Amino acid sequence: GRAAWASAGVPDPAPTAKVRIGANECWTGPLAPGAAAAAAMIPFGNRYAPHDERGDFIKAVMSVEKVPYDHVAPWPGSSDPLSRSVVTFCSPTRGLVTADPTFELAGRTAEWLKVPVKRVPLKADFSHDVKAMLAADPNAGLYYICTPNNPTGTITPLADIEWLVANKPAGSIVLIDEAYTHFAGVPTASYLAAADKDVIVMRTFSKIFGMAGMRMGYIMARPDIIGKMMRYDGGMQSGALPLPSLACATASLTALDLIAARRSEMQEARGLALEHLRKRGLKAVPTEANMFMVDWKTVPAAKMQQAFRTQSVEIGRSWPIWPTISRITVGSAEEMKAFCEALDKVWT
Ligand code: PLP
Questions:
Q1: What's this model's pTM, rounded to 2 decimal places?
Q2: CATH number of the domain at 32-253, please?
Q3: Centroid of ligand 1 to alpha carbon of 79 (angstroms)
Q4: Is any atom of ligand 1 closer than 6 Å to the C-beta of 101?
Q5: Candidates 79, 86, 149, 176: which one to mutate for ligand 1, based on the most atoms within 8 Å of Cβ?
């Protein structure tokens, strides 16, 4: 996504594209109650905490996820806690194990810290191969599970995650990144955090909640795990967060009907695109989230990305392990129609 462009010093081409389906953002903005709550907070922006907005947020998480108050830590987005968990639980002698392909941020942070990284290919069903992940480094500090996985949109069964938690080495953590969980609507791993296991369950408001630029997220974990991650400040010791974002997140979390409606809207738009791909004889990885991967057979994915740019459609990138496969984010139905039309122009 965006960070990759920024770090490469390359201007992000997406803002000029008419259809932006490259960065796994939501096709639309915050849920209506969230947007209203955010706007109402602006006049109180002179205070770090006009009332107890942070507490209200945590209570909303408690009501939805059934975790205790002290097991929740809000953050401005999930990138920081993701990197911070690597900083906290990995070292040159306690490595990181991730899947391949998966979201690369943990791996990048680990390499920067000279932490050994093992990348374990997904299984044939595109779930994480938890047994191979443990075997790859039986003494790792952190095992990273992204479910639904970015970029495949595939789910790793909770039974597999439970197996890893039960069999991993002492002193290690299983980090379960559920950035896309609302798009799948499946049971989550939050009960493992509530049960005081060696886990961090991570969420963001950047996806179904349409708040990528507003920066909100949180983790669920045992208080001692959260405490270790807070040992250096980074501006978080005070607990202050951007108030409009906090209020928006609080009001959005409990809007369960609106979340479900957005999930259905996504599924319908995704269905349109997948059906078109099938008709055109192109294979897609079976997905449960707001992204799908298209196999261009012998054509490099980077070349297809360039071709779509000529149609003002910004699709996603590929991962080194699968150089002919592109990740496409599910946009609105209209955007998916535009994607199909562009496809018919560039794939002849
Ligand atoms: N985790 C996954 C799996 C993601 O795909 C992303 C963003 O694309 C993030 C975490 C970080 O997003 P944010 O910092 O916006 O919460």
A1: 0.95
A2: 3.40.640.10
A3: 6
A4: no
A5: 79
Residue of 84, 69, 77 whose CA lies nearest to 217:
77
Task: Kindly report, residue by residue over 151-176, the tens digit of the pLDDT.
Answer: 999 999 999 999 999 999 999 999 99
Distance 292 CA to ligand 1 centre (A): 16
Contact 166, 304 (CB under 8 A): no
For 44, other C-beta atoms within 10 Å of its C-beta total 14
Please give the class, per CATH, of domain 2-29+256-346: alpha beta
Q: What residue ranges of the chain are covered by domains with CATH 3.40.640.10?
A: 32-253
Q: Which residue spans of the chain are classified as CATH 3.90.1150.10? A: 2-29+256-346
297 CB neighbour count, 10 Å cutoff: 10
Cβ of 146 below 6 Å from ligand 1: yes
Query: What's the one-letter identity of residue 173?
Result: I
| ipTM of the modeled complex | 0.99
The predicted-structure confidence for 5-29, as pLDDT tens digits, reads as follows 455 555 555 568 899 999 999 999 9
Find the length of the chain: 348
